[in-house]
């Protein structure tokens, strides 16, 4: 018998999409050059990790089950070892943290705890895609996870221009009108109001209110992705905290503020559904056929992390926030000392990312050259444009590096720029 050769043309069309290849490519480059200093990965700082914390968090969560919820030994064991309910087992703790840190008042039953925020994003897009006329709007450039998840859900993404303060709201409104005139049905607008990946920019409070007004007037949902909002000193109100008409589906992640290895995220989906119930109930139906449930042990670790901070992730991340603030300042100051003229960059006030505009084509081949010859990694921005733009832009992430590594990395970056220019 001969081996089976699968024809790529007979597989799902998303497998040929650039978005689905981006993360694998960037991980491959990093693995090929392990000694290179990486400004590429948007990972949280690792300097405070300690394996003993995992045991501490598990003990705290077990105590919560026993003393706060009144579980007996059998119930505690079943909760930690068995599958658990699809919506999650830490919903009460998530709701408490949201009220404490974000002034978001959410019924625990409106929360679906997911396998990372990426699953939450996919569940929402899959649920919203009812017919071939449906479409989601998103900024360009945008997070590749949104583009890839939408492709998997067969939901086209309509690009919206961005400015130095996030979404161009005039272009957004024009896009909504144009889509409806063409017979399409806009279902939702994806937005990261705080320190967006990849640009690092944030929306003003005035624009947040205007965006909510637009969503009300145009009868569309807002998908608010807030992975980085807690990691700053001067935080602005989330869209969900300002939402008075259940227009916002809030997508949360514990990857940056809790523990990335746990792979735990969540969605707040409190919109009412005709016939009874809420949107979270519908998302849980899809989840039950996708991942069944989010691993209880991973949830328990995150639950313990929440308990360790007294219910506040801001309090639990005080040291990390100080590192991110210092690293961002160091990168911005370091760029100013080393570059001028035809190299420019934005100046985010928080988060992980800085975007540079450069006079050369910053594509994948140039990244490989930078890693091989100069020992420094960065992210080509064209991955966030779906391959249609951004070829003279690159993203620097400053979150995981030490002060010494930042200085050495920027020196290497300067030598690379000097060679290419």
Can you summarize this structure?
Helices cover 44% and strands 14% of the residues. The chain has 421 residues and is of the alpha/beta class. The relative contact order is 0.16.
> How large is the radius of gyration?
22 Å
Compute the average pLDDT: 95
Oligomer: single chain
CA-to-CA gap between the ends?
Answer: 56 Å
Structural key phrases:
44% helix, alpha/beta, 421 residues, four-stranded antiparallel beta sheet
Notes on the protein architecture:
The protein is an alpha/beta fold. Helices cover 44% and strands 14% of the residues. It contains 15 helices and 15 strands. It has helices at 18-32, 51-68, 73-81, 91-102, 116-128, 144-152, 169-181, 205-218, 239-242, 279-290, 296-308, 313-316, 318-338, 364-374, 403-420; strands at residues 37-38, 111-115, 134-139, 157-160, 162-163, 166-167, 185-191, 221-225, 248-253, 264-268, 344-345, 353-357, 376-377, 379-380, 393-397. The strands form 4 sheets. Strands 2-10-9-8-7-3-4 form a 7-stranded mixed β-sheet, sandwiched between helices. β3, α6 and β4 (157-160) form a beta-alpha-beta unit.
């Amino acid at each position: 018998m001969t081996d089976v050769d699968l024809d790529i043309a007979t597989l799902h069309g998303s497998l040929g999409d650039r978005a689905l290849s981006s993360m694998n490519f960037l991980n491959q480059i990093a693995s090929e050059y392990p000694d290179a200093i990486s400004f590429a990965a948007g990972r949280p700082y690792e300097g405070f990790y300690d394996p003993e914390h995992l045991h501490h968090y598990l003990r705290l969560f077990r105590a919560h089950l026993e003393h706060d919820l009144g579980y007996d030994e059998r119930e505690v064991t079943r909760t930690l070892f068995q599958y658990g309910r699809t919506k999650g087992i830490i919903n009460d703790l998530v709701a408490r943290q949201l009220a404490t840190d974000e002034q978001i008042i959410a019924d625990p039953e409106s929360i679906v705890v997911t396998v990372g925020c990426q699953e939450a994003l996919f569940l929402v897009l899959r649920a919203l895609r009812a017919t071939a006329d449906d479409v989601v709007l998103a900024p360009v450039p945008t997070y590749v996870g949104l583009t890839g998840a939408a492709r998997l859900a067969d939901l086209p993404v309509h690009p919206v221009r961005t400015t130095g303060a996030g979404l161009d709201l005039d272009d957004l409104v024009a896009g909504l009108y144009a889509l409806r005139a063409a017979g399409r049905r806009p279902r939702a607008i994806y937005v990261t109001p705080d320190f967006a990946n990849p640009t690092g920019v944030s929306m003003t409070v005035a624009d947040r209110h205007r965006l909510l007004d637009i969503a009300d007037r145009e009868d569309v949902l807002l998908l608010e992705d807030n992975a980085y909002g807690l990691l700053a000193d001067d935080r602005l109100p989330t869209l969900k905290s300002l939402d008075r008409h259940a227009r916002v589906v809030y997508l949360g992640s514990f990857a940056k503020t809790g523990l990335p290895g746990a792979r735990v995220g969540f969605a707040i989906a409190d919109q009412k559904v005709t016939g009874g119930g809420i949107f979270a109930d519908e998302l849980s139906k899809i989840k039950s056929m996708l991942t069944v449930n989010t691993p209880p042990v991973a949830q328990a670790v995150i639950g313990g992390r929440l308990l360790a901070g007294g219910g506040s992730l801001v309090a639990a991340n005080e040291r990390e926030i100080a590192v991110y603030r210092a690293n961002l300042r160091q990168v911005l100051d370091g760029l100013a000392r080393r570059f001028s003229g035809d190299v420019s960059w934005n100046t985010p006030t928080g988060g992980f990312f800085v975007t540079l505009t450069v006079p050369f084509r910053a594509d994948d081949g140039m990244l490989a050259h930078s890693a091989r010859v100069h020992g420094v990694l960065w992210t080509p921005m064209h991955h966030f444009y779906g391959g249609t733009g951004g070829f003279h832009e690159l993203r620097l992430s400053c979150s995981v590096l030490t002060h010494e590594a930042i200085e050495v990395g920027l020196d290497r970056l300067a030598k690379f720029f000097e060679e290419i220019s």
